[in-house]
Protein backbone atom coordinates (compact mmCIF):
# COMPACT_ATOMS: atom_id res chain seq x y z
CA UNK A 1 0.00 0.00 0.00
CA UNK A 2 2.88 2.36 0.70
CA UNK A 3 3.98 1.98 -2.92
CA UNK A 4 0.58 3.21 -4.11
CA UNK A 5 0.53 6.16 -1.72
CA UNK A 6 4.05 7.24 -2.70
CA UNK A 7 3.42 6.68 -6.42
CA UNK A 8 0.17 8.64 -6.33
CA UNK A 9 1.69 11.51 -4.38
CA UNK A 10 4.74 11.77 -6.63
CA UNK A 11 2.75 11.68 -9.85
CA UNK A 12 -0.40 13.40 -8.59
CA UNK A 13 -2.53 10.48 -9.78
CA UNK A 14 -5.75 9.35 -8.21
CA UNK A 15 -6.88 6.86 -10.85
CA UNK A 16 -3.86 4.54 -11.03
CA UNK A 17 -3.33 1.55 -8.79
CA UNK A 18 -0.04 -0.27 -9.45
CA UNK A 19 0.30 -3.94 -8.58
CA UNK A 20 3.66 -5.66 -8.37
CA UNK A 21 2.14 -8.78 -9.94
CA UNK A 22 1.59 -10.30 -13.32
CA UNK A 23 -1.90 -10.54 -14.82
CA UNK A 24 -2.77 -14.06 -15.88
CA UNK A 25 -5.68 -16.32 -16.72
CA UNK A 26 -5.29 -17.85 -13.23
CA UNK A 27 -4.03 -16.94 -9.75
CA UNK A 28 -0.79 -18.41 -8.47
CA UNK A 29 2.96 -18.24 -8.43
CA UNK A 30 4.54 -18.97 -11.80
CA UNK A 31 8.01 -18.98 -13.33
CA UNK A 32 8.96 -16.12 -15.62
CA UNK A 33 11.95 -16.19 -17.98
CA UNK A 34 13.30 -14.11 -20.84
CA UNK A 35 13.14 -15.07 -24.49
CA UNK A 36 16.13 -12.73 -24.79
CA UNK A 37 19.29 -12.89 -22.72
CA UNK A 38 18.53 -11.23 -19.42
CA UNK A 39 15.81 -11.64 -16.85
CA UNK A 40 13.75 -8.46 -16.67
CA UNK A 41 14.32 -7.42 -20.25
CA UNK A 42 11.37 -6.64 -22.50
CA UNK A 43 11.07 -10.29 -23.54
CA UNK A 44 10.51 -11.71 -20.05
CA UNK A 45 7.41 -13.88 -20.16
CA UNK A 46 5.31 -16.43 -18.30
CA UNK A 47 5.63 -18.67 -21.39
CA UNK A 48 8.14 -21.49 -21.47
CA UNK A 49 9.86 -20.52 -18.20
CA UNK A 50 10.80 -24.14 -17.53
CA UNK A 51 13.27 -24.26 -20.42
CA UNK A 52 15.84 -21.95 -18.83
CA UNK A 53 17.72 -21.65 -15.56
CA UNK A 54 17.40 -17.88 -15.81
CA UNK A 55 13.88 -17.63 -14.37
CA UNK A 56 12.15 -16.15 -11.36
CA UNK A 57 8.95 -16.91 -9.46
CA UNK A 58 6.27 -14.24 -9.74
CA UNK A 59 2.83 -13.80 -8.24
CA UNK A 60 0.08 -13.63 -10.83
CA UNK A 61 -3.58 -12.72 -10.45
CA UNK A 62 -6.61 -12.72 -12.68
CA UNK A 63 -8.37 -9.52 -13.69
CA UNK A 64 -11.28 -10.57 -11.46
CA UNK A 65 -8.95 -10.87 -8.46
CA UNK A 66 -7.43 -7.46 -9.25
CA UNK A 67 -10.94 -6.00 -9.31
CA UNK A 68 -11.78 -7.61 -5.97
CA UNK A 69 -8.66 -6.06 -4.43
CA UNK A 70 -9.19 -2.61 -5.93
CA UNK A 71 -12.96 -2.14 -5.93
CA UNK A 72 -14.40 0.01 -7.28
CA UNK A 73 -12.33 -0.26 -10.42
CA UNK A 74 -13.62 0.83 -13.79
CA UNK A 75 -11.27 0.37 -16.70
CA UNK A 76 -11.74 2.59 -19.76
CA UNK A 77 -8.46 1.69 -21.45
CA UNK A 78 -6.63 -1.61 -21.15
CA UNK A 79 -3.05 -1.88 -22.44
CA UNK A 80 -1.92 -5.49 -22.71
CA UNK A 81 1.71 -6.24 -23.49
CA UNK A 82 2.41 -9.51 -21.71
CA UNK A 83 4.88 -11.29 -23.97
CA UNK A 84 2.71 -14.11 -25.33
CA UNK A 85 0.47 -14.67 -22.31
CA UNK A 86 -2.20 -12.59 -24.08
CA UNK A 87 -3.29 -15.73 -25.91
CA UNK A 88 -4.57 -17.27 -22.66
CA UNK A 89 -5.31 -14.03 -20.76
CA UNK A 90 -7.63 -12.36 -23.30
CA UNK A 91 -10.02 -15.34 -23.57
CA UNK A 92 -10.11 -15.50 -19.75
CA UNK A 93 -11.55 -11.94 -19.59
CA UNK A 94 -14.06 -12.31 -22.44
CA UNK A 95 -17.10 -11.70 -20.20
CA UNK A 96 -15.52 -8.55 -18.75
CA UNK A 97 -14.65 -7.23 -22.20
CA UNK A 98 -18.17 -7.95 -23.46
CA UNK A 99 -19.78 -6.15 -20.54
CA UNK A 100 -17.49 -3.13 -20.07
CA UNK A 101 -15.89 -2.83 -23.52
CA UNK A 102 -12.79 -0.87 -22.53
CA UNK A 103 -10.59 0.28 -25.38
CA UNK A 104 -7.93 -2.42 -25.76
CA UNK A 105 -4.41 -1.70 -26.93
CA UNK A 106 -2.85 -5.10 -27.49
CA UNK A 107 0.67 -6.19 -28.35
CA UNK A 108 0.74 -9.72 -29.72
CA UNK A 109 3.75 -12.00 -29.44
CA UNK A 110 2.92 -15.02 -31.58
CA UNK A 111 6.62 -15.70 -32.41
CA UNK A 112 6.94 -16.82 -28.77
CA UNK A 113 4.45 -19.63 -29.44
CA UNK A 114 5.24 -22.93 -31.13
CA UNK A 115 4.93 -22.36 -34.90
CA UNK A 116 2.20 -24.98 -35.25
CA UNK A 117 0.03 -23.18 -32.62
CA UNK A 118 0.33 -19.59 -33.84
CA UNK A 119 -2.57 -19.40 -36.27
CA UNK A 120 -4.99 -21.23 -33.96
CA UNK A 121 -3.97 -19.03 -31.02
CA UNK A 122 -4.45 -15.86 -33.07
CA UNK A 123 -7.87 -17.14 -34.23
CA UNK A 124 -8.96 -17.72 -30.63
CA UNK A 125 -7.72 -14.26 -29.66
CA UNK A 126 -9.55 -12.58 -32.54
CA UNK A 127 -12.72 -14.59 -31.83
CA UNK A 128 -12.69 -13.20 -28.28
CA UNK A 129 -12.13 -9.65 -29.52
CA UNK A 130 -14.81 -9.91 -32.22
CA UNK A 131 -17.10 -7.98 -29.84
CA UNK A 132 -15.34 -4.81 -31.01
CA UNK A 133 -16.54 -3.03 -34.14
CA UNK A 134 -13.17 -1.53 -35.02
CA UNK A 135 -9.75 -3.15 -35.27
CA UNK A 136 -6.76 -0.91 -36.08
CA UNK A 137 -3.11 -1.77 -36.69
CA UNK A 138 -0.04 0.03 -35.31
CA UNK A 139 -0.54 2.80 -37.89
CA UNK A 140 -4.17 3.24 -36.79
CA UNK A 141 -5.32 1.85 -40.12
CA UNK A 142 -8.20 -0.63 -40.26
CA UNK A 143 -6.98 -4.20 -40.42
CA UNK A 144 -9.06 -7.25 -41.30
CA UNK A 145 -9.20 -10.57 -39.53
CA UNK A 146 -7.82 -12.22 -42.68
CA UNK A 147 -4.85 -9.82 -42.68
CA UNK A 148 -4.05 -10.87 -39.10
CA UNK A 149 -4.28 -14.56 -39.94
CA UNK A 150 -2.02 -14.63 -42.99
CA UNK A 151 1.33 -16.41 -42.80
CA UNK A 152 3.39 -13.26 -42.24
CA UNK A 153 1.09 -11.83 -39.57
CA UNK A 154 0.92 -14.98 -37.42
CA UNK A 155 4.73 -15.10 -37.39
CA UNK A 156 5.24 -11.47 -36.44
CA UNK A 157 4.78 -9.15 -33.47
CA UNK A 158 1.72 -6.89 -33.82
CA UNK A 159 0.24 -3.90 -32.01
CA UNK A 160 -3.52 -3.56 -32.36
CA UNK A 161 -6.23 -1.26 -31.08
CA UNK A 162 -9.76 -2.56 -30.49
CA UNK A 163 -12.70 -0.23 -29.88
CA UNK A 164 -16.38 0.00 -30.61
CA UNK A 165 -17.92 2.53 -32.98
CA UNK A 166 -19.02 4.86 -30.15
CA UNK A 167 -15.48 5.04 -28.74
CA UNK A 168 -14.07 5.60 -32.22
CA UNK A 169 -16.44 8.49 -32.88
CA UNK A 170 -15.61 10.07 -29.51
CA UNK A 171 -11.88 9.77 -30.24
CA UNK A 172 -12.31 11.52 -33.59
CA UNK A 173 -14.23 14.41 -32.04
Any overview of this molecule?
With 173 residues, the protein is an alpha/beta fold. The chain is built from 8 helices and 8 strands; from the N terminus they run H-E-E-E-E-H-E-H-H-E-H-E-H-H-E-H. A 4-stranded mixed β-sheet has the order 1-4-2-3. Helix 3 (86-92) runs parallel beside helix 5 (118-128). The protein is globular, with a radius of gyration of 17 Å. 19% of the residues are buried.
Task: Give the termini distance in whole angstroms.
Answer: 38 Å
How can the largest sheet be summarized? 4 strands, mixed
Per DSSP E runs of 2 or more residues, the count of β-strands stands at 8
Give me the secondary-structure category: alpha/beta
**Uncertain spans, ≥5 residues at pLDDT below 50?**
1-6
The strands making up the biggest β-sheet line up spatially as 1-4-2-3
Helix content: 25-40%
Please give a quick description of this structure.
By secondary structure, this protein is an alpha/beta fold.
SSE order and pairing:
Layout: H1 2-11, E1 22-23, E2 28-34, E3 44-45, E4 56-61, H2 63-70, E5 77-80, H3 86-92, H4 94-100, E6 103-109, H5 118-128, E7 134-136, H6 145-149, H7 151-154, E8 157-163, H8 165-172
Parallel strand pairs: 1-4, 5-6
Antiparallel strand pairs: 2-3, 2-4, 6-8, 7-8
Amino acid sequence: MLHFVVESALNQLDNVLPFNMALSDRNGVFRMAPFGKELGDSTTSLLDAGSTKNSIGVSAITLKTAQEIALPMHIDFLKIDIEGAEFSFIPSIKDYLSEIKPIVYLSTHSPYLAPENRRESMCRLLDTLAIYDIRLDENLSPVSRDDLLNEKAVNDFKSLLFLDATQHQAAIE
